[in-house]
Amino acid sequence: MPVYYVGILRNTGRPAVELAAEKKLDSFNFLTRPKYSEFLDFTVGLCAERLEKNYRGEIKMAGMDKTGDYRFQAYDYKGGICGVVVTDANYNERVAQAILAKSLEFFAGKYSESAYTNLQPSPKGSPPPLAMPELKEYIDKYQRPEDIDPILRIQMELDETKTFMHKSIEAMLDRGEKLDSLVAKSDNLSSQSKMFYTQAKKQNSCCIVM
C-alpha cells in the first residue's frame, strides 16, 4: 500500500505553486517512471488549484494502467496553502489525512506566509523552492499505514469525528472543461507523456470493455 507523493502547495491562484514535496516512485517501471512523475505533478497541481475552501477529503483519479485507481487526499489549509498525498487505492484514508495534517502544521510552523507568498514555480525538473526534509521521512515511514507513531495516532483519533469529502477529478473541472483537453494544452507535459496518457487511456478502455 505505497505512498507515492506528499506535497505542500500554494493554491491562492492558478497555477498552484509546489512549495515543498517528496515522491517515491520506485514501484513503477524504470522506463515509464518519468512519465508517471510528470502526470503526478500535473494532476496534483490541478487538484490543488481547484480545491474548494476548507475542502478536506479524497479526489478520485482513475489509474493509467492495470494497477487500479490512485487516491489523492487533499487538505485546504490556512494561509493560502494546501497539502496533497497520493497513494494507491487501498491506503487508509485517515492515515493519509493525518500525514497531511502533520505535514501542513510542520510547514506552517517552519515558514511564514511572507516566505512563500511571491514564490514562482520551480523550473521543470528542479526541486521545489522550500526545503522540508521531513516529507521524505514521512513518505518512507508511512509506506505501511500500520507503522504509526503516537502523535499520528492521536491525530487519527481526533479525526474520527470528521467526515471527509469525496470528489472525482472531473467534478473539480470548470464547466465545459475536459481532462483530455487540459492534458493536451499543458505546457508542463512533454509530447511523449501526452502520447503515453492517450495510449494508456485507450488500453484501459479496452480492458474495461473486455
From TrEMBL:
Gene Ontology MF terms: SNAP receptor activity
Signal peptide start and end residues: none
Predominant localisation class: membrane
Matching Pfam families: Longin, Synaptobrevin
Compartments where located: Endomembrane system
Gene Ontology BP term (one): endoplasmic reticulum to Golgi vesicle-mediated transport
A Gene Ontology term for the protein's cellular component: Golgi apparatus
Family recorded in the similarity comment: Belongs to the synaptobrevin family.
Keywords: Coiled coil, Lipoprotein, Membrane, Methylation, Palmitate, Prenylation
Domain Longin: 7-139
InterPro entries named among the record's database cross-references: Longin-like_dom_sf, Longin_dom, V_SNARE_CC
Origin: domain of life: Eukaryota
This protein's name: Uncharacterized protein
V-SNARE coiled-coil homology domain sequence ranges: 150-210
Gene3D superfamilies named in the record: 1.20.5.110, Longin domain
Membrane-related topology note: Lipid-anchor
Species this chain originates from: Periconia digitata
